Amino acid sequence: MTRKNRRLYLIITGLVLLGSAAALVLTALSDYVTLFQSPTELLANPQYEREIQLGGLVEEASVDRLSDGVTVAFRITDLQSSVPVTYKGILPDLFREGQGVVTIGSFQNDGTFLAREVLAKHDETYMPREVADALKASGKWRPESGETPSHGGNGGYGGD
Amino acid sequence: MIAELGHFALILALIVALVQGILPMIGAARGYPGWMAMAKPAALFQLLFVTLSFAALTHAYVVSDFTLLNVVQNSHSAKPMLYKISGVWGNHEGSMLLWILILALFGSAVALFGNNLPATLKARVLGIQAWIAIGFLAFSLFTSNPFERIFPAPINGQDLNPLLQDPGLAFHPPMLYLGYVGFSMAFSFAIAALIEGRVDAAWARWVRPWTLLAWCFLTGGIALGSWWAYYELGWGGWWFWDPVENVSFMPWLLGTALLHSAIVVEKRNSLKVWTILLAILTFSLSLIGTFIVRSGLLTSVHAFATDPERGLFILLLLCLTIGGSLILFAWRAPALKAGGLFSPISRESGLIMNNLLLATACGTVFLGTLYPLFAEAISGEKLSVGPPFFNATFGPIMAPLIFLTAIGPFLSWKRADLKGVLQRLWLAGGLAIGAALLTHYLIVGGPVLAALGMGLAAWLFVATLTEWCGRIRLGRAPLSESWQRLKGLPRSAHGMTIAHSGLAIVLAGVVGASAWKQEAVENLKPGESIELAGYSYLFEGARPVTGPNYDAERGFFKVSKDGEAITDLSPERRIYRVQGMDTTEAAIHTTGLADLYAVIGQSDGQGGWTVRIFYEPLVPWLWLGSLVMILGGVVSLTDRRLRVGAPVRRRPARLSHGPGPGKGTKGTLPAKGSAGGGHRVGA
């Protein structure tokens, strides 16, 4: 086998691999990318039954536990509009009213957002960047809320 | 006062690094032996100063010196001593200092044990190490000085993020950094080789142990981080394809490729240019791993520090290192001559396939991790790329890789007999099909992919053992002969067998944990129970307990199977007093085949508690397999070849050019130091 032949084999293998990887990545990107939306964006252009990320602040005094004892209902707001969210499971440690959260799930026909996952940053002084941007877009951004949001004891929910 | 000394020592370290980065490089270019010799004392002094500085910071944490801003922000006098110490690197400034310390350690290891390296190569390697150090020291001193004072000093500190107050995470960053920084050695050697215009077997023999050592630490660091996420976050998952995880995984993937391509350089004097490129890219990804999360460019669920203000400096540092080295590569690489020829079916080709697949896998992870960044920059759309993307791209690339991993070791160099190899694999093939069918039969309704995955794991495991048995002629020769062969087999061969079987175990763990995990969330009152996967979890209630710096609610579960008591589980929900932050402490009982995993959530105020139970099949195998992989690396590190010197050569090394074979052969000896140094670092 000559050097030239070897190089040809290498290049062909490399290209085939690269091509299939590119095809994989492109299909996966079109199928599995989740859009981030704020409540205002979601309500303006609702997409049902598609996985999206809904981010904002947990509305004050909106957290409620349903009768099954496991499902939690709350509202996510960007201080302009708000969307009701239901989530079955244990909320993250840093979930609090007034705190920024990101929920992953889908918007239902009944106008509620069914969350599969609720994320709160593992740092209480943190505001998810998307949430901060959403708040800025709604004109309700207070820089200080990106710093230390008020929190009392074990948070404003659950302990009732 | 001690803090000022620490700060001063850090400045001295920067000055020494500047000397080390300039004089030996000029010395090597002009051939001044005295200037080149400067590198060794400089590297040692740099280690001394950085150690002093690190000790000063540690002292401040140990005695809770709240006149230091860094200590105030990350410590508290009531914190247990272990976390006071781990708090040193549990924050941005301190972790940078740890990075620099490890870099200095590796640098002095080369300085001390690299006596047999060609003088110019050693001077250049140390010079480049110094330039990396300069970048980091400057970054630390100018943008993230850990010794900043605060006035007036507060009475007490703000405590370390409670999630980081955990033994697993206490050792996760040092391990990870040992891995990241370890790749800096391969990088420095690569750049030095580009400047010298020469790569040979001796070079590869030096690079390999360092890469292997770094790889072992990185494997350990990633496994530790994954384990931590598994038991500390209380989500029952062990890998989330989160940006923080991805950025540590990418250098691992490329580092693994580098490990394998360096073998080809060493044994066959081929793939040199590619190996150099891999070394550069691996370290570049390590740098990205260190920085990208901190720079605030990517938001992640579990990064503990973000600071966009440092972003510019970081970007500059990344551009200089990565851009500069790639330009040097483009300019100098064509000077490196290509090596031996081989046929498409040969071990060389097998290792090339390994490299191509690993690099492609790394590329998809890179794209998925950075895509949100690109998308937002281009279209302004905010989106995220989650686990489904990675499962859809990473899996299909890894599957053929693992399939080929089983075949690769059977191939001989230059030209292999594929038919003969396949004949030796009939047992592995049969058992793999058996394992897949058995899995499918045992777990009715399970995904077909999972059965195939288990088959793949069995295929790799059995094939790896077959290859090993073949080498010692087990069953084909008298036992005594097999024993002699076993003892005569190089340690690196044992290492490969162990590491590859570790990979098979990890794969089985990944498949099992992803396919058959079960979960139940319920609101339980004391006396009620949950049934999951054949186990019954009786909730006996919860009561408050008090820890050194937290209060907690501890739940009590009695777990039984078919009426037989298995274990007690007591998960906690802790509230750390200082930060007022809750953390979840999952309770885990392992049966070896599965983990029983319980988490307690909030109380509903009426005597009920939200309780989450997971059945996590084969998760223990993930940790076991990772340990086995690391063991394989360590065994390989103790190889005679890497320790004392090169085997007798049948023909002189083919040096492309440079100062003659005399120096080249000399360069083959020093590997002694490398592995020795590695052990010292690892101990």
Q: How would you describe what is shown here?
A:
The complex is a heterodimer of chains A (160) and B (683). With 160 residues, chain A is α+β, with helices and mostly antiparallel strands. Chain A has helices at residues 3-32, 39-44, 129-137, 143-146, and strands at residues 33-37, 51-58, 64-65, 71-77, 82-88, 100-107, 113-119. Chain A is 31% helix and 28% strand. In chain A, strand 1, helix 2 and strand 2 form a beta-alpha-beta unit. By secondary structure, chain B is α+β, with helices and mostly antiparallel strands. Chain B has 23 helices and eleven strands. In chain B, helix 7 (119-143) packs antiparallel against helix 12, helix 9 (201-232) runs antiparallel to helix 10 (243-268) and helix 17 (448-471) packs antiparallel against helix 19 (491-515). The longest helix of chain B has 33 residues, at 347-379. The two termini of chain B are 32 Å apart. At the A-B interface, helix 1, strand 1 and helix 3 of A face helix 13, strand 1, helix 14, strand 2 and strand 8 of B.
Number of helical runs of chain B?
23
Number of strands of chain B: 11
Query: Helix proportion of residues of chain A, in percent?
Result: 25-40%
Nearest-integer average pLDDT of chain A:
75
Largest sheet of chain B: 6 strands, antiparallel
Low-confidence stretches of chain A: 122-126, 143-160
Strand order of the largest sheet of chain A: 2-4-5-7-6
Percentage of residues in DSSP E strands of chain A: 25-35%
How many DSSP E strands of chain A? Answer: 7
First and last CA, distance of chain B: 32 Å
Q: Estimate the helix proportion of chain B, in percent.
A: 55-70%
Give the overall shape of chain A: elongated
Structural class determined from secondary elements of chain B: alpha+beta
Radius of gyration of chain A: 22 Å
Can you tell me the overall shape of chain B? globular
Distance separating the two termini of chain A? 78 Å
Share of β-strand residues of chain B: 5-15%
Mean pLDDT over the full residue set of chain B? 86
Regarding quaternary structure, what we see is heterodimer
Radius of gyration of chain B: 27 Å
